[in-house]
């Protein structure tokens, strides 16, 4: 039998039945009816007691009614804090993903977030510290304050001298993280609630600009000197020495030497330009390095005899196939061997050694040019391959050098994807080593294919 006043008990909080609110009243009414029926003799006593016990058992079997959940009003402050925390996490992730050193600051100049690249460039940054703990350049601090006040982007270039010379560029950008782009009252842009500070390293760019300027100055100087000499001798021959045969012969010999010097300088400049133009294209023609080195040594043997230097070649009988440009490789080893013969003649000996390093699919061809001359001081070694750099300017010019020989060597090695190393000690000579990737022998290729 379905009792209507029990149907609300089917409702549940979390799936559990609840005791209906009207059940106690129904139980009380049933007891009163049974009492009245017993008093007037309308109900049998046993039936009345059974009915009361049944209703009581049903009341005990039903669980207590769960309290009604109280609906709470949302806390605006908590919601705002949660939204701000989510926004901060997104901003930190964005700053961390920037490819350049970056700092996110509050309008008051306190560090809000920093990426890992900043620690490598300027040092560690701690959240909550003033930005002046990391950046101590007054111009940047002034730019941060101005950007936080007027919302304008600024750029500042500055240089650091300690521990090394560096040139950096700082970009100061205002951020509106709260999405309030304008001041509602006056319609103007609202003040930023964050400032993004990023840095870009200009050191390499500045060094290239300086090298370019030095190159133009040095090239102009190297050309101007023989030109001035030629002009002076021409004026002399046209004037006082017009009828002086002895002076004319002496002056003409000097003029010829200066003309050859200019020709060598122009040839070296053109060679360097051609090599740089094709620096990105690796040569693919297979050439025999041993025959190239042997050809260079045979060509320079008269110069060695003229200077009284013994030129020894070891390992030239070993096949050393490489992929390269034959003319450029000849120029490379001509420069190295000629330098050894000219500037280390006091040692009376120059050795050229060929060897093969490694094996398998990545063998390396090694060529060493060693002299036994006065050697090179350690402070000069890092700059030897710079254009127009000379350890001894006067000695280089006396030997007919242009200051571009080792620069050409460096660029040829770089185009062939090789390595150049220089070892020297004062009084112990110098060793120039060139390593190029060799072509594997046929048996190595066959062994690799079988494996």
Describe the protein's architecture and organization.
Helix content is 46%, strand content 18%. Strand 5 and strand 6 form a beta hairpin. With 451 residues, it is α+β, with helices and mostly antiparallel strands. It has four domains: 4-61, no CATH class; 88-201, PAS domain (Beta-Lactamase), CATH 3.30.450.20; 211-275, Signal transduction histidine kinase, dimerisation/phosphotransfer (DHp) domain (Helix Hairpins, Orthogonal Bundle), CATH 1.10.287.130; 278-446, Histidine kinase-like ATPase, C-terminal domain (Heat Shock Protein 90). Residues 1-17 and 443-451 have low confidence and may be disordered. It has helices at 23-40, 45-61, 76-97, 116-121, 138-150, 203-238, 245-277, 289-307, 326-343, 393-398, 405-415, 442-450, and strands at residues 12-13, 16-17, 102-105, 111-114, 154-160, 166-175, 194-201, 286-288, 310-314, 321-323, 349-357, 364-371, 419-424, 430-437.
Present the secondary structure layout.
Layout: E1 12-13, E2 16-17, H1 23-40, H2 45-61, H3 76-97, E3 102-105, E4 111-114, H4 116-121, H5 138-150, E5 154-160, E6 166-175, E7 194-201, H6 203-238, H7 245-277, E8 286-288, H8 289-307, E9 310-314, E10 321-323, H9 326-343, E11 349-357, E12 364-371, H10 393-398, H11 405-415, E13 419-424, E14 430-437, H12 442-450
Helix pairs in contact: 1-2, 6-7, 7-11, 8-9, 9-11
């Amino acid at each position: 039998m379905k009792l209507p006043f029990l149907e609300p008990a089917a409702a549940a909080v979390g799936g559990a039945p609840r005791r209906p609110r009207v059940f106690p009243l129904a139980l009380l009414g049933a007891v009163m009816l049974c009492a009245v029926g017993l008093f007037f003799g309308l109900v049998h006593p046993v039936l009345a007691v059974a009915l009361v016990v049944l209703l009581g058992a049903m009341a005990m079997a039903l669980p207590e009614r769960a309290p009604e959940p109280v609906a709470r009003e949302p806390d605006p402050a908590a919601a705002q804090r949660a939204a701000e925390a989510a926004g901060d996490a997104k901003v930190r992730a964005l700053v961390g993903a920037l490819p350049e050193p970056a700092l996110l600051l509050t309008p008051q100049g306190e560090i809000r977030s920093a990426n890992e690249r900043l620690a490598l460039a300027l040092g560690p940054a701690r959240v909550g510290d003033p930005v002046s703990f990391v950046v101590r350049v007054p111009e940047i601090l002034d730019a941060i304050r101005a950007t936080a006040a007027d919302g304008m982007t600024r750029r500042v270039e500055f240089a650091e001298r300690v521990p090394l010379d560096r040139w950096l560029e700082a970009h100061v950008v205002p951020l509106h993280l709260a999405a309030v782009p304008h001041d509602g009252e006056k319609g103007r842009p609202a003040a930023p609630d964050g400032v993004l500070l990023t840095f870009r390293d200009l050191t390499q760019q500045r060094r290239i600009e300086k090298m370019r300027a030095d190159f133009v100055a040095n090239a102009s100087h190297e050309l101007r000197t023989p030109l001035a000499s030629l002009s002076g001798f021409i004026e002399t021959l046209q004037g006082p020495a017009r009828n002086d045969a002895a002076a004319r012969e002496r002056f003409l010999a000097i003029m010829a030497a200066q003309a050859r010097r200019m020709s060598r300088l122009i040839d070296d400049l053109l060679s360097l330009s051609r090599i740089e133009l094709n620096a990105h294209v690796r040569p693919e023609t297979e050439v025999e390095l041993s025959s190239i080195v042997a050809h260079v040594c045979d060509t320079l043997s008269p110069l060695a005899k003229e200077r009284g230097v013994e030129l020894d070649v070891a390992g030239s009988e070993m096949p050393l196939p490489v992929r390269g440009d034959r003319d450029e490789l000849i120029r490379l080893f001509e420069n190295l061997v000629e330098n050894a013969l000219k500037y280390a003649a006091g040692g009376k000996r120059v050795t050229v050694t060929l060897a093969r390093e490694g094996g398998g699919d990545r063998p390396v061809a090694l060529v060493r040019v060693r002299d036994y001359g006065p050697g090179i001081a350690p402070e000069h070694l890092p700059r030897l391959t710079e254009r127009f750099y000379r350890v001894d300017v006067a000695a280089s010019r006396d030997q007919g050098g242009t200051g571009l020989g080792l620069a050409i060597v460096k660029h040829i090695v770089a185009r062939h994807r090789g390595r150049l190393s220089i070892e020297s000690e004062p009084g112990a000579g110098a060793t120039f080593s060139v390593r190029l990737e060799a072509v594997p022998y046929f048996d190595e290729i066959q062994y690799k294919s079988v494996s």
